[in-house]
Design brief:
- By secondary structure, the protein is mostly helical.
- It contains eight helices and three strands.
- A hairpin with a 2-residue loop joins strand 2 and strand 3.
- The longest helix is centred in the middle third of the chain and has 20 residues.
- It is globular.
């Protein structure tokens, strides 16, 4: 019977799967149970990581935010994906929060049918198989780089770094640029020392 089947399923997966990992480790769902702005602000202010990296981390502020969604959120909020979270002004943090909710709700309402996404979304322009460099688009010049370990599309003419940073000029910097690579000679010497 259905009751016996449900009892067996409950026994196999536990009474409430959301109380055990990996589901219990997920952050708030931006559509079904969004994190309030005040709590979002607190969590963002505690991180020095780039905005995009925090948005992609399914346990930090929201779950379900993937690569293109994070890029779209940052574009719509006019914040560079590489901007450090702890340097965002309150208005920037509020814009990122509002855009996470808006982009996710819009995508869900469209049943993920990209033809029904708003025409002003960067989504329609970013799929050019580019991982670096830049290209012209109706939105302005889109740059491609790596932020948070993922290919990232952004429009420096619209998106700005954290307003709380010491220099408020537009920032075109990635996590890779923030951590310069060690010279190959050092790596080779380190490898020789290990042998």
């Amino acid at each position: 019977t259905d009751v016996e089947g449900q009892a067996l399923l409950d026994l196999l997966r536990g009474a409430d799967p959301f109380t055990s990992p990996p589901l219990s480790a997920l952050a708030a769902d931006p559509v079904a149970d969004p994190l309030p702005l005040d709590e979002f602000r607190v969590r963002m202010s505690k991180s020095k990581a780039p905005v995009k990296a925090v948005l992609l981390d399914q346990s930090k502020v929201f779950c379900g935010v993937g690569n293109w969604v994070a890029d779209e959120v940052c574009y719509q909020a006019a914040v560079l994906p590489s901007a450090p979270c702890n340097e965002l002004e309150d208005e920037q943090t509020a814009a990122v929060h509002a855009q996470v909710l808006a982009v996710c709700k819009t995508a869900c309402a469209a049943n993920a049918d990209s033809e029904r996404f708003p025409p002003g979304w960067m989504f329609h322009q970013r799929w050019q198989n580019q991982t670096s460099g830049s290209m012209d688009s109706p939105l302005g010049r889109i740059h491609f780089d790596t932020v948070g370990g993922r290919t990232t599309a952004f429009v420096p003419a619209k998106q700005k770094k954290a307003q709380g940073a010491s220099n408020n000029a537009p920032l075109v910097e990635t996590a890779a640029a923030a951590k310069p690579a060690k010279p190959k000679k050092r790596r080779a010497k380190a490898e020789e020392a290990d042998e």
